[in-house]
Amino acid sequence: MKIYKFTFFTLLLSFLLPEYSYSQELGANSLSSSEIENIIIRSTRIPAGAKDIGSSLYIINEDQIKARGFKDAIDAISSAPGVTSKQNGSFGGVGTIRIRGASSSQTLVLVDGVPVNDASSPGGGYNFEYLNTSNIQSIEVLKGSQSTLWGSDAIGGVVNIYTKQSESTSFGASAEIGSFGLKRGSTDINFAGSNSRFRISTSKTSIDGISKADEKDGNSEDDGFESESYSVSGSIDLNSLTLKGSLSYMESQVEYDSYGFVTGVQDGDEKSNTDEFIGSISVNFDLFDSKLQNLIFISQSDINRDYYSKGSFSFGAEGKRELIRYQGNIEVNEFNKIAFGLESEESKVDADNSTIDGSFLLYEFKPNSKIIISSGIRNDDHEGFGSKTTRRISGTFKPFDNLIIRSSWGEGFKVPTIFQSTYFCCGATSANSAIRPETSTSYDFGFELFFNEMKSNLSIIYFDQDINDQINFSFGLGGYENIDKVNSKGFEIALDYQISKLMSLYLNYSYIDSVDGNGSSLFYVAKDSGEAGLIYELNNSYSGSIIARYNGSESSSYGKIDSWIRFDINGSYRLSSTNELYFRIENLLDEEYQQIFGYGTPERSGFIGLRVKF
């Protein structure tokens, strides 16, 4: 540990001392107004520029992820205003996110368009802990009720993750070591021809870890974590027809702790093995002189989890989601765009299955360069819970070149998971047959102001969301039931400021007031949270960031969780055109804090690695 600290602080000192240089036009990985204009958003089904989207949206790309030193996807996602993350124990503990107070299971997660929420988990959420950033190109976080766009599960929002695609023929690799016995490595091989692209990537991580149950409560047993992943993707362009395909596989082994009566968790000899498979194939083709663009998309995601206690198998679960989707896009003229489609998805858990069929129609009207209005309607029909229609409307108004006013309203719904609709215990003789889907409505309004020669921007957004018939477990009933509505409202502030050609600042703050039908604050939702980061490039060789994360106090069923602030520092030094040395120091001030009551977090820790690319 001492050698790590010495190495990292030496690197930090050398990082801060080199000669200052203004050698780049736009440094610090900040995006100018014109660069934002060129970003094409795909999460809204009708591709549009980032400045034309009326819905509340957050985007983080590969360069920003690297500049901020995010090695795990959950850190990149939770840097979005209004998004908070939780991990029940570091290094392999379940990692979840909340968007504007909605529960983690009310967020739909897509990887290259494939729904990956775990069909076998009780709430149908997604565990982000196994997903690192080595193969991520960009992430789009669409906030608010979005079922009109993406169907069931999209009550709180949508996280759309896009993996890297081959841009040129190249080879890359990275290796990293650090505190708690961390060893991490990744490779990627890329091929780009005249009409075809191909990419293979691998990643492996192992760490001795810390005790998931907080050490200050007398828990001293380290809980390790190992994972490895492999992915293959490719595309072939045949003039008016494009074929794409992708396969990925991940396996992990996690040591975790047992239930504890006092804090909810204590040291124990528990382990889990998880296998995750994601596959998709798509065909894009044009008809009627390219006036109608068509997409046929088929995908499958499988998650298999096995749990062990004291070396013996305890239980397992296997969930599967199979999807077939057709979407058509028509650009009638420069003022009118239409998207429509059909989807059918089947979820399977062991011998049980659930099927939902959906159809949607979206319309975008752009009467002039200052106003854009988007609307949509969707119907989803579930074999067991009937039919549900959702609607949405959003608008963008640009009264001046440097000002965008946005507003959106939408509806959401989520059918009970297979587990929720079949599980019973505690003396009950059957599952609750009266359980109903969750529904939601959400509204937001705000503006984005560009200044500083259009290199900086400030946004403020107010939101209000109601979730009705939220599903919760009841010991008295011995199963799941619908409870009273949940309301979340608040505001988000985000600032991206270009201090100089080589230095920029980003800042976000969120106020989220989430209460149940009795007016009581929801557990594990802090009213105040935020993040600030200083990104800098001292010359062509040195770059880095200092990031502060803040989370206000929260309540839980076991007691109060105090507020905390954590500082991380990240830096890189370019050794040559192909080699780069990088380091991270996390929890720089050695803050003692908890994200979930009873679960510990790492002390100050350091990591160093090398990246090569040919």
On the 0-100 scale, what is the average pLDDT? 91
How far is the N terminus from the C terminus?
A: 33 Å
- Kindly name the structural category: mainly beta
Shape: globular
Estimate nothing, just give the exact number of structural domains.
1
Radius of gyration: 24 Å
CATH class: Mainly Beta
Topology:
Elements: H1 2-16, H2 33-37, E1 40-41, E2 48-49, E3 57-61, H3 62-68, H4 73-77, E4 83-87, E5 95-99, E6 107-111, E7 114-115, E8 136-143, H5 147-150, E9 157-163, E10 170-178, E11 182-192, E12 196-207, E13 225-238, E14 241-258, E15 266-287, E16 292-309, E17 312-333, E18 336-349, E19 352-365, E20 371-382, E21 386-400, E22 403-414, H6 418-422, E23 438-451, E24 456-468, E25 471-474, E26 479-482, E27 486-500, E28 503-515, E29 528-537, E30 542-551, E31 554-555, E32 560-561, E33 564-574, E34 579-586, E35 605-613
Parallel strand pairs: 6-9
Antiparallel strand pairs: 1-2, 3-8, 4-5, 6-7, 8-9, 10-11, 10-35, 11-12, 12-13, 13-14, 14-15, 15-16, 16-17, 17-18, 18-19, 19-20, 20-21, 21-22, 22-23, 23-24, 24-27, 25-26, 27-28, 28-29, 29-30, 30-33, 31-32, 33-34, 34-35
Notes on the structure:
The protein is mainly beta. It has a single domain (2-163, 178-198, 209-310, 322-613), classed as Maltoporin, Chain A. The chain is built from six helices and 35 strands. The strands form six sheets. It has a 22-stranded antiparallel β-barrel. Strands 3-8-9-6-7 form a five-stranded mixed β-sheet. Strand 25 and strand 26 (479-482) form a beta hairpin. It is globular, with a radius of gyration of 24 Å. The model is unreliable at 1-28 (pLDDT under 50).
